[in-house]
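Entry 14. Two folds queued back to back today. First construct below, sequence then structure tokens.
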Amino acid sequence: MTTWTNDELDRVGGAEELRIASLRKSGTLGGWRTIWVVRDGADIYVRSVNGPGSDWYRGTRARQEGRIRAGGVEKNVSFVDVDPSLNDRVDAAYRGKYGSYADHIIKAITSPEANSTTMRLEPLA
């Protein structure tokens, strides 16, 4: 398994936004979307503020691989579904990083619908 370098963790985790594109069944990349990203320790997490109905999130279900760009890092990744018990930690990371945004935005990204889409990004070789 490939892991993030400390520099990549700092740069991706510290980026305000992340660009994400999922790999289609055909093997081509889908369209790029801009989303929020958080770091918790040595892990990078993303989730869909609009829940599982979001186009970009549904795209991650096809091959569970894609590409990300953030903080000057561009990398192929796998999208790994997480155990729901991690959602409290990921919620705290979102609140800590984006807490200056309006309350309704933070409530949306930490809602049960958004939590159901939490994925850990793992770099691919």
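Second construct, same run, same settings:
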Amino acid sequence: MRFSSLTSDRRASSFTDEKSKDAGAEHIDQLEVTRTESAAAAAAPIDEEAWRARERRIVRKLDMTLLPTVWTLYLFNYLDRNNIAQARLNSFEEDLSLTGNDFSVAVSILSVGYVLMQIPSNMILTKVRPSLYMPFWVCVWSCISAATAGTTSFGGLVAVRFCLGVAEAPFFPGAFYMLSCWYTKKELALRTAILYSGLVLATAFSGLLAAGIFAGLDGSMGLAGWQWLFIIEGAASFLMGLIAVFILPDFPSSTTGSGTWLFNAAERQLAIERIERDRVSDKESDHSIWYGLKLAAKDYRVWVFSIMLSANHSAYGFNNFYPSIVRGFNLGSNTITLVCTAPPYLIGALITFAMAYNSDRTNERGWHIIASMSVAIAGFVISLATLNVPARYFASFLYIAGCFTGNSLVFAWGASTTSQTPEKRACATAIINVLGQAGNIWSPYFFSAGEEPRYVKAMLLMIAFSVLSIACCALMKVVLVRANKRIKASFEGTGRTPQLYTL
């Protein structure tokens, strides 16, 4: 079987014409050069092995630039969002006079701002340069997060946390959309797990960072340890946002961003074609962003994945309270408590990488998610069944690894299933993530101050939502099996092999 890296002069010309509309008249000369180079390369067809070799070269370049950049930014994204959990172990609540459910409100209000911004942001992202748009928001949220150090009341804290949610909202769905524009389905689960590991490692290292800051800077220059925590982490993410401008590529068809020096014209065309080949064989041709939103809203699978992700996030509701859970084990000082929060997240990240790698190799998602959430349920059950500290600490390894793995695979599965056009993928990704945030809005209220450290009500609710996630997953497998049968039937007698949904 023979492949061509560049299908024809006409294909290259079409690509150039489309780019010129997006990039503007100032790029016409450069695009004419691209057209000439692409047409010349098209004359030399290559076999399948050569095609794969060139694909691997593109993937290696992405793995050395795009992936580590968005991973680092996501790590800071979650550091700046989650440091409130560590601040609670310092004088945070006392300094701001927080009482009752005030802390839970401060945690959940961020998700409200997060929800409001995601869909419009992803719609905008398809029409702008991601290498400028995403770093801009990184710098904005960094300043807002650092400003938390200046709050003196519950009202000020809520206002800052809401604005932080708005500023952080564009990043994760935008980063995942960028990955899905460059990586194929068989490559995406592992890269999504790596991206998600930024969340887990941020949670792990935030405890270690907080332990060091609280021990060394608490009271320095008249500032409490929690204030230094927000200032230092905000400044670090701002610096990374500036660096990202020079490393992030734009879209495969773009002639801007780091793609101009990462890839030549032939490689950019190959990057476009391999994503086109990878789409399920029921794709649409209308590339209007509003039509993409309409397609996403009408696709019931988007809503099933939204419920699944919301259930997963609800089961992951322990995250902002995990330092408080570990404090209930009475292991020693706050420093020891914060250090002990790290190992479960580090082990969880390793397990997730292994599961995602296997998911990509086997081209299977559903059973991997079901197995992960079943492990999480086992952890919650152990936490309910005993007061033995070693057993409950071991249980936390199970539910952290299970929920984290389930979250990363659900998002990868949902995006690849709803990608008939790039515009629909952008909107569907945002909708799934937005509705999934419902779990982050209500889950902080699972944890009542009077129930620390066992949190019986919270554990029961997180078991229930884990079961809901498994049920949605099983339903989606049935739906996609039937869809694949219909696609196969439509291709019978054509001599062509269709691209099917990942199960």
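Quick look at the second one. The domain at 66-248+279-491 is CATH 1.20.1250.20 (Growth Hormone; Chain: A;). Residues 456-491 form the longest helix (36 residues).
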